[in-house]
Design a protein that fits this description.
Length: 75
């Protein structure tokens, strides 16, 4: 799936964001083989989607991360 086009990656990301409480860079890489996840988020924002980055910290490892959450769809 690493050869998917940005539009297909946009679709995968939006489908995931609609169905869950968000998506991290790590999850996007492992689950969807999306290596340029933050770029795709930026592109989706430019297309009019309201996506918020929520900072977090793993309770065991202390690793910091950002979970991206879809707040509003394009009208």
């Amino acid at each position: 799936m690493s050869n998917t086009t940005p539009n297909t990656q946009h679709t995968l990301i939006l489908k995931h964001l609609r169905a869950t409480k968000g998506l991290t860079v790590r999850e996007a890489l492992i689950d969807y083989s999306i290596q340029s996840f933050t770029k795709r988020i930026s592109e989706l924002r430019k297309l009019g989607h309201t996506i918020e980055g929520v900072k977090g910290k793993h309770p065991v490892t202390g690793q910091r991360y950002t979970r991206y959450v879809l707040l509003e769809e394009v009208a």
